[in-house]
């Protein structure tokens, strides 16, 4: 009878040890930080070209995006042929150069305020000047690049960049208006 109690006690201890070791091997569920609800914005970009103070050209672009690290982009433009071999009269090869606008950006909310991070560029042909020489000359291109981080005020237009063209009296200005949709 003592042997039987001894074996039962020994078996109970063994079962308890197995149960404790199995419980310790279970991973402890960790709390996953909850991601705040994403917000949605519409960005309205306005690109102005001015001659002194007079606006001579305006282009508008709209973009809808969600807050976070994934960028949204808008691109509009043309491919311009450029003679890259031979002469303008008898080209042997032609390459193409992209012109237009390219905006890539994303928004994060910091302390409930939208912060815009953007990369943008605009390029175009520079109008050829009139000359007495009848020989065609290769085109010239104008390019402006913008890299900016801006705290936005929803509903209010903000100037992101303002650039003077060093070759003329022209000024180029990029404005953005953010509208929170959600």
**What's the alpha carbon Rg, rounded to whole Å?**
32 Å
Biggest sheet, spatial arrangement of strands: 2-1-8-7
Helical residue percent?
10-25%
Number of domains: 1
Ranges with pLDDT <50 over ≥5 residues?
Answer: none
Summing up helix and strand content along with how strands pair, one would put the structural category as mainly beta
Arithmetic mean pLDDT: 82
Strand content: over 45%
Order of helices and strands: HEEEEEEEE
Shape: elongated
Largest sheet: 4 strands, antiparallel
**Kindly, what is the distance between the CA atoms of the first and last residues, rounded to a whole number of angstroms?**
76 Å
The total strand number stands at 8
Number of helices: 1
Brief synopsis:
By secondary structure, this protein is mainly beta. It has one helix at 2-25, and strands spanning 40-51, 54-66, 72-86, 91-110, 113-126, 140-151, 157-164, 170-180.
Describe the 3D structure:
By secondary structure, the protein is mostly beta strands. The protein has one domain. Helix content is 13%, strand content 58%. The strands form 2 sheets. It has a 4-stranded antiparallel sheet with strand order 2-1-8-7, with no helix packed on it. The protein has a 4-stranded antiparallel sheet with strand order 3-4-5-6, with no helix packed on it. The model has no long low-confidence stretch (mean pLDDT 82).
């Amino acid at each position: 009878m003592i042997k039987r109690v001894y074996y039962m006690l020994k078996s109970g201890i063994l079962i308890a040890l197995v149960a404790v070791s199995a419980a310790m091997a279970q991973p402890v569920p960790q709390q996953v930080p909850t991601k705040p609800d994403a917000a949605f914005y519409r960005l309205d970009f306005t690109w102005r070209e001015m001659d002194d103070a007079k606006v001579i050209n305006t282009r508008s672009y709209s973009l809808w995006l969600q807050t976070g690290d994934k960028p949204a982009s808008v691109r509009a433009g043309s491919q311009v042929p450029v003679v890259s071999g031979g002469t303008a009269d008898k080209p042997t090869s032609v390459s193409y150069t992209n012109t237009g606008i390219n905006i890539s950006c994303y928004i994060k909310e910091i302390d409930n305020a939208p912060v815009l991070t953007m990369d943008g560029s605009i390029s175009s042909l520079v109008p050829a000047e009139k000359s007495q020489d009848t020989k065609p000359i290769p085109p010239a291109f104008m390019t402006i690049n913008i890299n900016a981080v801006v705290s936005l005020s929803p509903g209010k237009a903000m100037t992101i960049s303002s650039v003077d063209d060093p070759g003329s009296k022209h000024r180029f200005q990029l404005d953005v208006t953010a509208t929170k949709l959600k």
